[in-house]
Amino acid sequence: MKRMHKYMIRSFIGPFLLTFVIAMIVLLLQFVWKWIDELVGKGLEWKVIVELLVYTSMRLVPLALILGVLLASIMSFGNLGEHNELTSMKASGISLVRSMFPPLILVVMLTGGAFAFSNYLVPVTNLKFFTLLLDIRHQRPEFIIKEGEFYNGLEGISLKIGARSKDGKTLHNLMIYDHTLKQGNVAVTVADSGYMKITEDKRYLILSLYDGFSYAEQLEDGKKLTKTKALRRDQFSMQEVLFKLPDTELNRSREDMYRDHYNMLTMNQLADTARALVDEMKWRKKQVAEGLLARELLRFEKKSDVKDNPNYYPDSIPEYRADTLINLLNLTDQQQAITQAMAFARIVRSNISTSKENSSLRMRWINRHWIEWHRKLTLSFACILFFLIGAPLGAIIRKGGLGTPVVVSIVFFITWHIITLAGEKYARGGIVPVWEGMWGSSLILLPLGIILTYKSARDAAIMSSESYYFFIKKTMKTVRFWQKDKHENTSANQ
Questions:
Q1: Which of 180, 237, 285, 465 could, after both became Cys, cross-link 156 (CB 3.0–4.6 A)?
Q2: Domain boundaries, the chain
Q3: Contact partners, residue 93, CB within 8 Å, separation at least 6
């Protein structure tokens, strides 16, 4: 390996490791910000939180690699351009494309590693992450009630408070709905104030209510509501209510419950599952079509005739005229036949509509598998894509550090991410083919990387404001000349 190659790789590795760590921290903070409400007040052990963050970090590695490669390529080549090292290389006969080659080899190796990581490790991590996250979401929260909102953390009870004192235990303007009988809002208690206390074993909540009323609708037979029913109203100056709190221990679910989800599968498993779902959907469509032909179109034929003769379908039915047949009936029979035919048609339309909705849902599920299949490739290819954009862009900007490169990287990354999310949404809904929706962002930005590489290799002044000023000035001059010439031709014709 030549000394220049080693130098270029060292110039790239340092910023890459720094930016990769920064990207991981930023993405982790974004995750914590998104799920903070699900984690706070759960009484979780620090080991569980660390485990969840480790799984989250593993899931974010492919995305952090993309952002790290983009930012590192801009920083490294920006530093080289700022210190005129790229100019020295060009003076020595080393072009920009040649200087990009050693880091590009490293990025290709990172791309292969990112693909292997996404295909083999991320599915396992997703399985553990989502299993643990669902267990945490089902975990009983600490008894934290927000003012003006209903709290449904107690089984069969919906509690709302108007205000809370500074001690956190004295409550004001309480409203309690009792749904333990599962008969609707038939029992409610309101109180002017209250005081709550949790027992030492943290298994029960004691709520003392002051100056309130209890309302309960009396149901006949203890089951059904009637239009006229008795209402019971009790007034109290002080009343204590005991509520049982759910268990505080985190119950861990079995991981094999979610093993068949598309987020937990490798590419081969995704492809096999998607093909199996397609075959199943085709089989169901065939069953629906044969069922409609056998039960509706051939309603008055014997089922044995249809079963024994699978070719006995509309093409083999003798030609007849419906108006001729119906004219043979009297008026009453005609009305009855038309009514019955319309009822049959409504049934068929309902069956077809239901089958269409089911097929649409199944197709969406199939698309999700193919989306995940393509995602493993697009996330890996994005490393090469952003290097092709970042390296020439850094050579053009000629600025190192974390200032301008960070701003430019964020703009390109957000653009790529928005296009990717839009394409994924359209692919999930079947508006565009899956490959087009998932690869759209890469196909849009790849020409930009090629153009930037070409322009930077030719020392084009892309980032120079003077070049754009002269271009606009020249364009305006051309437009004015064209308008003047058109006006003169019009005057001469007149």
A1: 180
A2: 3-138+385-410+446-466, 150-244
A3: none
